[in-house]
Amino acid sequence: MSRALLLTIRFHDGRYHGVPDWPPSPARLFQALVAAAARGDELSAGDKAALQWLEALEPPVFGAPPARKGNAIRNYVPNNDLDAVGRDPARIGEIRSAKLVRPQIFDAAIPLLYVWSFEPSLEADASAAQICIIAERLIQLGRGVDMAWANGEVLNSDEAEARLSAHRGPVHRPSYAFGGSALPCPAPGSLASLITRHLASGKRFAEIREDRQPSKANPATYKVLGTTFTQPPKPRFRQVAYSCPPALLLFDLSGEKAPWMQTRIVQLVMAVRDAASAKLQGAYNNENRADDAATVEPVFIGRNAANGDKSVRIRIMALPSIGSPHVTRAIRRVLVEVPPNCPIPQEDILWTFSGLSSEIADAETGEITDLWRLTQASDHKMLSNYGVEPARNARVWRSVTPVALTNARRRRIDPTRVRAEVKGGHERLAEEDSARAAVSDALRHAGVTASAVQINVQREPFAGREARAEAFAAESRFAKETLWHVEIKFESPPRAPLLIGDGRYLGLGLLRPVESRAGVLAFRITAGLQQETDPTAITRALRRAVMARAQDALGEKKPLPMFFSGHGDNGAAARKGNHQHLAFAFDRSLQRLLVFSPANLEHRKATKEEQKHWQMLQVAVSGLTELRAGKAGLLELIPAEVEEDDRWVRPSLVWQSATPYRVNRHARAGSSMEAIAVDLRASLLALKLPMPEIQITPQAGAPYLEGLVTLTFPVAVSGPLLLGKTRHFGGGAFVAT
Fold it and tell me: Which of 87, 439, 683, 708 is the most exposed place for a label (fewest CB within 10 A)?
């Protein structure tokens, strides 16, 4: 059975001042352990070997206490520039700089837990025991004021997982899920880089000397001309995506008023919220838990909540049915999102909403019926429509319920004076510009870290059977002039569910993903492309960039899977008929670069391992904005979408070559056209596609047997179609016509 190294960290006070990360990253803990092990400039051989063993392990899982940001305090301190005031200590007040201090506030009784897994061996067991000894010497974690102490244990992996499960706080695990936070983690070479940085820090200042002849009056052999400053090298860590998603509790909505009208979503959410708050608060008071009862209203309603309490509030989302274009957009389910650092236990919130109802008695018979009732749902499939379970990689999102933008109010037109008060084009454009700016602010306030590259706003819904924005204003506190339907294209996929705007705690601002073609990534070239370029040179440069980023995400010492490299464990190129690795293409007409998964390329279902690699790829290439492609130029890139009706993937009867088809092997079947046709039929047969009519135009003077082809199928065939020997580098690409 595998073993686990568990380090338990406790703080003296329930405050943490380290920036920018909370919880403290594994790299920060590793630095603290190095500082604890060091005796001056020296590390003992045993401590050094143990730390080198620790840095080579997989990134740890760690748990932290629930925390919130405290009030910001601005201190004014000297900025270490005494030369600016003639080195006069009396004038130190002239060089003070503002320093913002905003600690994280948490319960000091709840520790931090860091768990590294490893396989038992004599060397590993000895190193783990030595790390436990080093942990006993730790005195701080974060800044100098963050006094802490630690202890280590070596447990079975099941025991360590049980400790994490019983931990009263969010647990962060390495993940390639969208929206994960990238945290620095130790990697092979981290210890050496810290030692190098420490030694270089002692030599940051060096004198600029001029040799001179010594004399009796001045026996010095040099003259000091000045001082230089050299920045010590940065420590070496690897960035690992960590995920700590909120808990999602789904309930079916029943009762006399079910299904609920979508335009009355605010009234439903308020009724559910108030009933849940009253139920839980009453239960706590009955158990004489006054302190717990006091946390209910700030968490459920936001009443008496400080600005730092927004991150711990639950969100109640009434979900309109959007699974089919023919279904009525009524509300049949309610989703409750519980943030990982919520001070109220998740089981208490689940008990509160389970069976929650609003009852009414008949005036004549006295019979009691439910206006609405919540029952815990057993089927979560519909959550995929909102980008949840499984997580979607969509970058385009559209509103189902309008976004409340109180700072982007449209001018109201008197219904009796429509012609007199009609808006001109300039006024409408100004209102939409203001709304787009307000959407950017709304994303920031909602904690959405993905950058928006395009925002569209309108009053009309984006799908049939949905309602206009102003229809949601009735009986709510939001004026109809502040409600907008929005479409947002993000630079990278955000985490779902996605709610934004001033009404996000009342059901407004709920967005859904717009599906792009699965298994395809695209980048649009915005600048830097040279006119006469070899497409293969560009696709090979893209392949190298993807492999480098995937290697960084995987870890330096880990072998790169064939999925990315196209090479086996022995380094040889894949030679099987089904090449289970990525394909790259260059769309010259639309100035795009495309990456296709092997499952998409071969028209089959992806394996679980391929799905895992594809998720890793999406995280690895997020933020890819520059590609050095040699003579093709220094390309500037932005993410692009490949929709289902894109000419590379949409169903079509006729497909034409975008790049020449090169045969896999020479069939020796008479003329060059016949040889190309024989090889092409074999390629189509391998993909189990129907046999088409084939028209071939051979490439005269080409060094290989290749040609431009038109395929006419008896039935519509979906893409992508990349065929032939060079299909993994954009050769043999066909587009629908």
Answer: 87
193-223 CB burial, b ≥16 within 10 A, e <16: bbbeeeeeeeeeeeeeeeeeeeeeeeeeeee
Task: Based on DSSP, count helices (H) and strands (E) in the chain, helices before strands.
Answer: 15, 36
30 to 46, 57, 236: CA distances (angstroms): 16, 12, 12
29 versus 98: which is more confidently predicted?
Answer: 29
Residues 492 and 639: their CA atoms lie apart, in Å, by 8
The DSSP secondary structure of 79-116, one letter per residue, reads -S-GGGGTT-GGGGGGGEEEEEE--EEE-TTSPEEEEE
What does the alpha-carbon distance between residue 490 and residue 492 come to, in Å, rounded to a whole number?
5
Distance CA 579, CA 567 (A): 10
Count of all residues that appear for the chain in the document: 737
Asked whether residue 255 carries a pLDDT value surpassing 90, the answer given is no
Higher pLDDT, 204 or 111: 111
Q: Over pLDDT 70: what percentage of the chain?
A: 93
Q: What is the pLDDT of residue 355?
A: 92
Kindly report whether the peptide bond that precedes residue 535 is cis, defined as omega within 30 degrees of 0. no
| Chain segment 146-190, per-residue pLDDT in tens | 999 999 999 999 999 999 988 888 889 887 555 567 889 999 999
Q: Which secondary-structure segment (H or E) carries 587?
A: strand 583-587
Q: Return phi, psi of residue 470, to 5°.
A: -65, -20
Q: What is the DSSP letter of 240?
A: E
Q: Could you read off the pLDDT of 220-253 as tens digits, one per residue? A: 777 777 777 788 889 999 988 888 888 899 999 9
Interatomic CA distance for residues 680 and 486, integer angstroms: 46
CA–CA gap between residue 491 and residue 86 (Å, rounded): 49
Q: Which residues of 264-275 are buried (b: 16+ CB within 10 A; e: fewer)?
A: bbbbbbbbbbeb
- The DSSP output letter for 605 is P
Provide the whole-model pTM. 0.64
Residue 707: the pLDDT is: 86
- Token pair listed for 409: 């109010």
For the chain, what is the largest distance between any 2 Cα atoms, rounded to a whole number of angstroms?
119
Closest CA to 57 of 257, 233, 240, 322: 240
Name which of 666, 657, 662, 665 is nearest 708 in CA terms.
Answer: 657
CB 30 within 8 A of CB 134: no
Which are the contacts of 74, defined by CB distance < 8 A and separation ≥ 6?
98, 99, 100, 101
